[in-house]
Amino acid sequence: MACGCGGTNGGSGGCGGGDKSTAAPVVEAVLSQEQAKELAHELPSITTAASGVVEFTPPALAAIGEPEPLLIASSEQDWPRIRVNGVAIEPNAMAQELQYHPADEQSEAMFLAVQALVIRELLEQRCQALGLQVEAGAGESQEEAAIRSLIELEVPVAEADEAACEHFYASNLQRFVSAPLLAARHILLACTPEDAEARSVAREQGQALLLELQQNPARFSELALAHSACPSKEQGGALGQLSKGQTVPEFERQLFRQPQGLVSQPLESRYGFHLVYVDQRLDGVQLPYTAVASSIRSELYQRVWQKAVAQYLQSLVEAADIEGIHLAGAALMPSDPQVQ
To answer: DSSP code of 113?
Structure first.
């Protein structure tokens, strides 16, 4: 049984028994009006023209329009008929784009896919109107390079100044703390979440083993080898050095609250019950501003950049002749200022 506990994996603090997450497909992000408003509230000192951060100041965002039923496909065989300044969006392009927009309803997925294609077409048409000639960089297509250059040209965004960065740091001190570290051992008494009887037996076994360990903690390695269902039993139950994110959430929440020494109760997770001995713990400490200033500056730049690009895209939508779909609000946009 996979234990997901972060047991030793070549000394890296993970036995490899946990659930493996797979990378989600890359999709274009939607910045809603509500999110834009949140950014405006969070960064009042760096989003106004007076502050010099966002030089582009297009019209304010309107509310996102719901897809109109008559404009979106009415059956699995039909495709919307979409034109952008007279240029048709082909059905095969819609079919390919659909995979990047999973949704509960087909009409919603179709709307999101068509919206993305319309925005892409508007950007390409703008590149052509300006006569942009660019060379693609490593890992990007010619289309991506052109759109990146267009955004850089028409949406200039200055970096946040030192005062804004220091204000953000002071207002979010809890975010800038080093991660706590633990060195611990465990004995996993495995049982599935659905088997109530097995879990009852495992709990009783855990209590019995805990009594033995309380009387003689030096037997931990011996009992781990004899009873643990985790591969770490071969190393006396050692999990290695653990930081947050290396174990399953329900185990982590309990583990990182424990003081050094033998934990007084078995810790329950989806994999069963864990008897734990915390050998060492290093609590997180407040990081100085100088250590995080660069990351703060990058984050604030990214936030303002996203809002500015959303406004720019909306201005393109408002100026275009778009048939077959109603785009009344913030449009799809790239999520990174360097990559489309």
So the answer is: H
